Amino acid sequence: MADEDDDFHPGDGDSQTYTLKAGDIRKGGYIVIKGRPCKVVEVSISKTGKHGHDKCHFFAVDIFTSEKLEDIVPSSHDCDVPVVKVTAYDLIDILEDGSVTVMGDDGVVKTDVKLPTDEALLKAGIKEGRKMVVSVISAMGEYMITAVRDAAPN
């Protein structure tokens, strides 16, 4: 029997999703619906007849587009769950195509981050020369800024 890895966490490695039983997914968690990473806003579980399965009815919101989605899945079936990470990056520049250039603590530069809806704050900060830090949510190969703050002075 192989040794179990006590430090294993779902989503470790390069995988963009992992599987979880539908009955184990709760409000506030994440699920993939129609190929999109979503945050679950409500779950209702319906009991069925004596030969049927319990069904989970998920109401969720796409974490990048805010589109409302729903799905019904038997509670014993596997669902894909996106690996969602929130990371802080230094804001470098705003590009003309509407994307943002950011740099992580490791020195890696990303240029495929979407602007948030409150882009005026970012543009003003860049124009004034302020050092700003952005929180970026990532899932399934997509990235989006969720928060902006001034960097703490050294």
Automatic annotation (TrEMBL):
InterPro entries, alphabetized: IF5A-like, IF5A-like_N, IF5A_C, NA-bd_OB-fold, Rib_uL2_dom2, Translation_prot_SH3-like_sf
Among the GO molecular function terms of this UniProt record, one is: RNA binding
SMART domains per record: eIF-5a (SM01376)
Point out the coiled-coil segments of this chain: none
Family statement: Belongs to the eIF-5A family.
- Pfam families (UniProt xref): eIF-5a, IF5A-like_N
Show where the Translation initiation factor 5A C-terminal domain sits.
Answer: 83-149
Q: Does the keyword rRNA-binding apply?
A: no
Q: How is it modified after translation?
A: eIF-5A seems to be the only eukaryotic protein to have a hypusine residue which is a post-translational modification of a lysine by the addition of a butylamino group.
Listed name of the protein = Eukaryotic translation initiation factor 5A
